[in-house]
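sanity check this:
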Amino acid sequence: MERCAGVLAAVSSLPGNQGIGDFGRKTKMFIDQIADAGFRIWQVLPMQPLGYGNSPYQPYSSFAGEPIFINIDRLSEMDLLKQSSIKNLNKFKESVSYEEVRKFKEPYFRKAFYEFKKQFERFEKEYQKFCADNDWLEEYAVFITFKKANDMKEWRFWPDEMKNWPFDKKLDLTSYENELFYEKFLQFMFFLQWKEIHDHAKEKGIEIMGDIPFYVGLDSADVWANRKQFLLEADGSPSFVAGVPPDYFSETGQRWGNPIYDWKAMRNNGYAFWMRRLAWQKACYDIVRIDHFRAFDTYWKINADCETAMDGEWVLGEGRSFFDTLYQKMPDIHLVAEDLGDIRPEVLKLRDAYQLPGMDVLLFRMEPKMLKRPAKKNSIVYTGTHDNDTAEEAYGKFTHNRRIALRRFFHNRGYNERNFHDLLVHFAFDSDADYVIIPLQDILGLKEEGHMNHPGTIGSPNWEWKLKDYKKLTKEMNKLKKWLVNAHRERK
């Protein structure tokens, strides 16, 4: 790909009338703005059903979509709701209150579902095709219906007939038929609306980069229905869990709690579970970023009995065996490797063997001598990611001498912007990297209020930052457009 640039922004962080960014008109406005400025990529966070702590990296499914991204106004335009009945929620609030949004949207979804059933002939052909084309749908609908019937408890603590349904199918689902239909309706609407957003992006010349977590959540349809693909005990609890040892983000490491894959079993069936996941991502996005790519080389394996991530061990991953299988099945898949952290050289060799762009985060090398190091051509330069401080937040924590040294570095190279985030963004655009992606928070110059996630912590305020409107972004785009042109990154 020719030199280009993109914006990292979670859908949830965009302005929305009902308390969260969703698949409505304002998301199309965002696409219009970045396209008009000359950007070419929009990188999103995972959009699967939000699980523990509302983390997009602990979803209830690798395939289903999070219903709260469904836009209510769009349901009205489809004649499933009356526009006069729709109210707003937290329209100008600068954070997402997930539970409040869920409670607010649920009655609208139920009303729309009622109308959907009344008008089913209108949608039947397209709906039946959606069900036929997505082999994960029935499984997920049963999982989430059972989960709701059990007060959202983990599947390990359900009655045996629900817990073991994927294998014996003994439980009669007749009494759950309406709820199963409802869950399928939500997924139908989610992907119908997402396709409209994706198609709009294509019309504007914007490619969307999705993000696939390496691991899946224990409390998910993935594990519930595919237990033999994971290292689990007889009761379904994990024998080992995933994480990383002590690093930049945490002195005691990060114990994520995700179950570890049974790679021997996966190898024997041609990595079928992973192939399904990646094929689905490929269908939903133009580019797919593999989070925690390094685990394909080596992964940190923690005994489930350990309370922290400190007492684990590195285990060799699947490496070339996996990627040879993948590219044999999907030769045209466009992948990006998240290769951050304390990694060994073999990770980079694996990345380069398949010519995957890696990540170069400028905030991880905030010393003049490190900034002098040219960016690799086949890489993506970021000012920061969703997991670290914003540029201005980090700058506020630097010592006085470090600030002076950094400003001198940028000034000597012809960058005279007053704000630190502008210096960093402008510098990133001019780098040798083929790709540059800037978090929306760094475009806006936000400080700690824009911090998206604090690794190693769970729940609020993680994942809650939201933009209330586009006033400031609109002003910033004219400046960014000039920098993109001068750096020869503008979308042609």
